[in-house]
Amino acid sequence: MHEHVFAAVIANDEAETLLSVEELDDARAFADHLRRHAATAAAEAATTAAGAAEPAAAATATTEAAAITAETASIAEAAAITKAATAETAAATFVETVFAETVALVLAAPAAATFIKTHALLVTFASPKCKIGQTCRAK
Fold this sequence. Notes:
Number of domains: 1
Number of helices: 2
Radius of gyration: 39 Å
Shape: rod-shaped
Helix content: over 70%
Largest sheet: none
Structural class: mainly alpha
């Protein structure tokens, strides 16, 4: 008896998931709306042209279908170009932001650094060439 309830719960989760996908598709539908009508009109024009008895009417319908198909292709191409330009602009903005912040940080770093002078002597493990009371002269 409980296996039916379990299946209904899973089905409800799937329905909620698919509902969000459907809402996303509906939000995007307006952009496809005009293109789909043009494609449908082209298909109907081609069907009408095939069923027509007169060759002149068929030629006219074919020409109209070709014009609609060409218009649909140009709309799709314009959408692709717009999408590519948008992506390029977004990438350029991101790169400009990253480099502007990086350059600002790099240029500010030397100005903030202070030089610390120490009075420590350089101590090495080499033996001195001069003794303490003598003057060192080059040989």
